[in-house]
Amino acid sequence: MIFEATIHVMPKKEILDPQGKAVKLGLSNLGLKNIEDVRIGKHITMQVNAATREEASREVELACEKLLANLVMESYEFELEKLR
């Protein structure tokens, strides 16, 4: 079976996000004064060929923990959708 994983990696709340701060300042300079906070993260999609949803989930977990997210500074969450 083929599953599609949609992964969201974000800086942890307690970690400073300089890119988010720069975007917030840029938005403010454009006159968008009601923006309270901006956090910049990563959106990743991947297809996984696995026998079961559980196996696909384990593969995505390993990919996130070993490569896609820096667990010291980032958190992640993902959804799996069966394609075929």
What does the secondary structure layout of this molecule look like, with pairings?
Layout lengths: L1 E10 L6 H12 L12 E8 L3 H16 L5 E9 L2
Q: Compute the gyration radius: what is it?
A: 16 Å
Number of domains: 1
From the 3D coordinates, which CATH architecture would you assign? 2-Layer Sandwich
* Fraction of residues in β-strands: 25-35%
Let me know the CATH homologous superfamily: Phosphoribosylformylglycinamidine synthase subunit PurS
State mean pLDDT (0 to 100 scale). Answer: 97
The CATH class, by name, is Alpha Beta
Question: Using DSSP, what is the number of strands?
Answer: 3
Q: Describe the biggest sheet?
A: 3 strands, antiparallel
Q: How much helical structure, as a percent, in the residues?
A: 25-40%
Which residues sit in consecutive blocks of at least 5 with pLDDT less than 50?
none
By secondary-structure content and strand pairing, the structural class works out as alpha+beta
- Overall geometric form: elongated
Helix-strand pattern, N to C?
A: EHEHE
How many alpha or pi helices? 2
Task: Write the CATH fold name.
Answer: Mth169, Chain: A
Distance between the termini: 6 Å
